[in-house]
């Protein structure tokens, strides 16, 4: 039924495709997606309800599937307990035939004509191939140009269009918002939209942090290029993406990025140009800046409304922000969740019911996870942060961050979605292009690694 429903959805989405104009072909708004889903759901008839098989006489749910060992070694025991006799010891990636799904931390398997038991903590249903290493060719990644210091909104649009054209079966492209200066906020979905798990990645929250958009786009190209051939420690990319979809918003704040890169020349709205000049003169007059206009705009963190997206989310909003009027940074806005960028993220997180949020910032080569959340959300955030730090060779900060008005604090405390802030690189923001190689090497495998963590 799910497969049929998904095929119908794709057909309906195709019928809703918009013309080129200001938007690329195949860009879809959330309203269009929801309209199609409403049609499907209103026509669907639930003619049966899947029932759960009863426990067998030994206390296991009968299953018949293959599982794979994820520890260096795993003992197969004669009984489902750690004191039982060891039947055999197998190594990482060994394929085992599972016959029973247990309720006390042990599963039943069939190994060399004998029944045995393994602890659930060290097996997975994700396929692990024998070859655990994957050598990729950098030369095959020829869409996203990483030789330019300024990765612009226009370049991103061109790259998204080309990637969408090259890999239509593995990539979905949608528009989840439109900014004050009339730019699209794009979301890329890699993998199966009906996957069991979902990870959301957000880049370029601040205008000056456009390096993070370049990192996101290069990672998108990498996973698309090697979708059917690559693996992470033996876990096949295509199997990972079939079970854990990744949703990427590479440039959440395209207006801010454009202002930081091009100053006033590429601002489309005359009124926004006038307001930017007004904010500069006011900040200069009250001691908020001693920079010239171009340098003031180069370090522009906010969006085109002068709102710092880092402070606009509805978590402890009353104490968020550092200034009381629109500016290059620190202004939280008149009301919480007021900005198109904020609304876009919230809609995406809730729509996909994400299991993990990763937000790219700059700089410091560290990961923050503690935003005052408690219970399972704090435990999961810490677990995910430690895993990501290991994959990236970054430091983890256990220090509690107030995060008033921040996306990460809102996700952790209000939505109960584990959220991590990843500070890329080490230099001053905007980061120099010289930092890209080290950041790319740190990030490249991290998405697949976190898919593995989230699945379990």
Structure description:
It is a single chain. The chain is α+β, with helices and mostly antiparallel strands and 456 residues long. Among the domains are: 65 residues, SH3 Domains (SH3 type barrels, Roll), CATH 2.30.30.40; 242 residues, Zn peptidases (Aminopeptidase), CATH 3.40.630. The protein contains 13 helices and 17 strands. The strands form four sheets. An eight-stranded mixed β-sheet has the order 8-9-13-10-14-17-15-16, with helices on both faces. A five-stranded antiparallel β-sheet has the order 6-5-4-1-7, with no helix packed on it. A two-stranded antiparallel sheet has the order 2-3. Strand 4 and strand 5 form a beta hairpin. Helix 5 packs across helix 13. The N terminus is likely disordered.
Topology:
Elements: H1 2-15, H2 30-43, E1 60-69, E2 73-77, E3 86-91, E4 95-102, E5 106-111, E6 114-119, E7 123-124, H3 153-166, E8 171-178, E9 184-190, E10 197-202, H4 211-225, E11 231-232, E12 235-236, H5 237-243, E13 244-249, H6 254-262, H7 270-285, H8 293-298, H9 340-352, E14 356-362, E15 366-368, H10 375-392, E16 395-397, H11 407-413, E17 419-424, H12 436-443, H13 446-455
Parallel strand pairs: 10-13, 10-14, 14-17, 15-16
Antiparallel strand pairs: 1-4, 1-7, 2-3, 4-5, 5-6, 8-9, 9-13, 11-12, 15-17
Helix pairs in contact: 1-2, 3-4, 4-12, 5-13, 10-13
């Amino acid at each position: 039924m799910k497969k049929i429903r998904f095929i119908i959805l794709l057909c309906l989405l195709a019928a809703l495709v918009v013309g080129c104009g200001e938007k690329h072909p195949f860009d879809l708004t959330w309203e269009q997606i929801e309209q199609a889903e409403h049609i499907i759901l209103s026509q669907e008839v639930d003619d049966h309800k899947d029932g759960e098989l009863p426990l067998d006489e030994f206390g296991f749910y009968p299953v018949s599937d293959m599982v794979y060992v994820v520890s260096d070694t795993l003992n197969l025991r004669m009984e489902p307990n750690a004191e039982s006799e060891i039947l055999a010891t197998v190594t990482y990636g060994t394929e085992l035939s599972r016959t029973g799904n247990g309720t006390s931390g042990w599963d039943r398997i069939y190994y060399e004509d004998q029944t045995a038991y393994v602890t659930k903590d060290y097996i997975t249903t994700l396929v692990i191939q024998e070859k655990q290493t994957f050598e990729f060719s950098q030369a095959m990644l020829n869409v996203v140009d990483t030789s330019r210091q300024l990765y612009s909104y226009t370049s991103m649009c061109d790259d998204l269009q080309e990637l969408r054209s090259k890999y239509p079966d593995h990539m979905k492209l949608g528009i989840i918002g439109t900014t004050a200066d009339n730019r699209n906020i794009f979301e890329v979905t890699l993998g199966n939209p009906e996957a069991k798990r979902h990870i959301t990645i957000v880049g370029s929250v601040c205008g000056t942090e456009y390096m993070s958009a370049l990192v996101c786009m290069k990672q998108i190209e990498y996973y698309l290029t090697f979708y059917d051939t690559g693996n992470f420690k033996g876990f096949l990319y295509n199997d990972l993406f079939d079970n854990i979809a990744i949703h990427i918003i590479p440039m959440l704040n395209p207006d801010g990025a454009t202002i930081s890169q091009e100053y006033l020349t590429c601002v489309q709205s005359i009124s926004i140009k006038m307001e930017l000049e007004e904010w500069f003169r006011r900040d200069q007059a009250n001691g908020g800046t001693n920079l010239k206009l171009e340098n003031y705009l180069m370090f522009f963190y906010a969006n085109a409304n002068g709102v710092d997206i880092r402070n606009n989310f509805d978590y402890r909003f009353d104490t968020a922000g550092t200034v009381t009027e629109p500016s290059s940074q620190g202004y939280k806005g008149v009301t919480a969740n007021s900005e198109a960028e904020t609304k876009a993220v919230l809609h995406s997180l809730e729509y996909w019911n994400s299991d993990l949020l990763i937000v790219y910032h700059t700089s410091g080569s560290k990961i923050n996870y503690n935003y005052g959340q408690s219970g399972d959300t704090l435990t999961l955030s810490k677990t995910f942060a430690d895993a990501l730090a290991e994959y990236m060779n970054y430091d983890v900060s256990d220090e509690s961050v107030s995060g008033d008005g921040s996306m990460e604090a809102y996700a952790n405390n209000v939505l109960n979605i584990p959220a991590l802030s990843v500070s890329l690189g080490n230099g001053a923001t905007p980061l120099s292009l010289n930092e890209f190689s080290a950041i790319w090497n740190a990030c490249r495998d991290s998405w697949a690694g976190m898919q593995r963590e989230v699945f379990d």
